[in-house]
């Protein structure tokens, strides 16, 4: 008799569990960034931004199509390597994720985007700025930051019109991001009537820049632009100081991080570095960004490096499209995501154009004083 009673209880538990799961929808959000290698600090920053968004969505008890949604984060490491990036993308597709936020680098985002497109899975990059990403004709590709044409072009004009650069040298790390932003910077300099005195290149794992910096020093530059990431820019600043190059160092969002002063190890003079971050908040929006940074610090006991707020917004925009579509199925919410207009994020207002690029993307210009990043201006 006891056995029969236990069997009845077990059957009831199975039925209850089935009923509960029928009222719940699991939403898998994939995230890819380099959480190993030289820019792992940026990749971990991104992943924490995604984790904060997922945890907050679950705490809110979001419902999709009348069912309570339970968001899960599937995080992968691409080590900023294109081959590892495509392997990570395929793994997420095989795991049947509902959407992907990533990758961090243009060099991994672009090859991975075809895999997501072929699978019909929406992808929002929080930081890939190479224009090619959204110009391949993929309806699944979106980004929440301004692209290199805007980023590099604006920096190039700023170098001439605001910093009064007369002899401007350009270095890039030959990645899709670094070379792309340097090309657009050079175009921006020329369109503003400025002059570049040399173009050199390195790679994203280099630590010795003596040869290229010696060549540049002979041209007496007042500004050196570097297209690449902070892990290379830091040692470059040290060697510029050793060689007696007193030029300003400019760069895009890849160098515009909280970690740069540490990586430069005391070689950065006040206001020597001028960089821009794709995105920017003004006026009332500043309070939202400060609140985000406080929540981030409380949860992870870490300061935001750079892209975490964009990752957070990307997850939230994706979830918002699912709620509006009444479904987390990619084919159903993708058309709604594409029509996103006026979404209020912590990084500003998000609307997508017909390519998947953010409309009217802002840029924030920064410099460094006393080892701390300071905002100069928000430009559009």
From TrEMBL:
UniProt keyword list: Amino-acid transport, Signal, Transport
Membrane spanning residue stretches: none
Extent of the signal sequence: 1-22
Gene Ontology BP, a term: amino acid transport
InterPro entries named in the record: Leu-bd, Leu_Ile_Val-bd, Peripla_BP_I
Domain Leucine-binding protein: 27-370
Keyword NADP set for record: no
Domain of life: Bacteria
Keyword Signal: yes
Record-linked PANTHER family: AMINO ACID BINDING PROTEIN, LEU/ILE/VAL-BINDING ABC TRANSPORTER SUBUNIT
Family per similarity comment: Belongs to the leucine-binding protein family.
Official protein name in the record: Branched-chain amino acid ABC transporter substrate-binding protein
Organism: Azohydromonas caseinilytica
